């Protein structure tokens, strides 16, 4: 089978995608350090500040799958441009917000725009790159994820210092506007045109989108609201989420029989590499995101660090993640799953070392945790991008946006679960000990490590299962057999061939 000639502008197109993706993911963490300034600036209540942070994550996760399907069916470039324009406009609206209500509304719309944009980025990577190049591209995207999450507090602190006490927080949003405009201009020129089949009028599974969206909202609302007060969160919505998910599965099966074009093709979830990669990503993001949540709170509220100082203290993680994400993208085609398992082990070791160092109660906390955070960051770079590459390697290109939407929804749900669980432990310890920050951060880090270790255990079990299958199949193997073929993978005729990573 011959492959079409690669797009000569693919690396420049990737740069545009990475800029856009970086902005949307940066806005998950950059606002945290600006919350006190926002409270003073617009008189926001504690509940409204919670929605500034949590509302973004909520609407981001709400639209991921439906937006991925729209990009696959109606054109990724069209969806990318619309979403990026909306993200730029809502960033400006958040920056000029005269009151808390307007700010919350702008953040909800901004989150939805970010959720519309991100599946298109991964869809373009699937479309533009093959084999080892795809691994390198995902490595760069993984670097964008790791850096945006870890460096958000530092950039937020710098913007607050530069913008001044009164309106510095507004620049946390304004900074997206010139970058967004530049990305729009470059995207219009460099991104590949939508193909004819993408423009075909496939039936829209509106009911499926509403059922899945309702299930995601019902799941995430109690999780995000529990960050401040777990006892008051509407946990009954979890039952509603479960019911909606069951209805969604029944409806999708009906849609497949009726017109053959459901919102989510469940054949994706029967593809072993995709299902396991998505599950591992959910568990890892639960621990990964919670790390920055509790450490930032500890440094600013427990040790009196300024936003800029807290951001600088987390920079070693960002630097380590940036370096190994790029390297991991090159190595994943040769090392495969062992690379992810090794990265998870390094993250767990680094976080345990952070806990040990903090138990010693050093005078210069930021310097003391720099080394362990660097180790954890180096490991993280070998997890996010390689796992994403392995999860999507058997996904057909035409399903790339939908698969990315499901994958990223899992990551967002994982982040909400992690922050909710670790935050409950962290704040519960603070309340029960009358403000013992050292004990609270220790238990919070243990909670984050638990999620990372669960992801590590899943990776090890999967790796051992692969090796057992390989040993069983060796006597019957032929020169044409491929180690990645799985009996339950579907759509072999349309799957995009990629170079099989070593297992």
Automatic annotation (TrEMBL):
Name of one Pfam family that matches: MFS_1
Molecular function GO terms recorded: transmembrane transporter activity
Listed Low complexity bias regions: 475-488
Cellular localization per UniProt: Cell membrane
Regions that span the bilayer: 12-37, 49-67, 79-98, 104-125, 137-159, 171-191, 203-221, 233-252, 273-299, 311-332, 339-358, 364-385, 413-431, 437-465
Alphabetical keyword list: Cell membrane, Membrane, Transmembrane, Transmembrane helix, Transport
Protein name: Uncharacterized MFS-type transporter
Principal location listed in the UniProt entry: membrane
Annotated ranges, domain Major facilitator superfamily (MFS) profile: 13-469
Record flagged with keyword Transmembrane helix: yes
Record InterPro entries: EmrB-like (IPR004638), MFS (IPR011701), MFS_dom (IPR020846), MFS_trans_sf (IPR036259), Sugar_transporter_CS (IPR005829)
GO CC aspect terms: plasma membrane
Keyword Transmembrane: yes
Top-rank taxon: Bacteria
Chain spans, region Disordered: 468-503
Topology in membrane: Multi-pass membrane protein
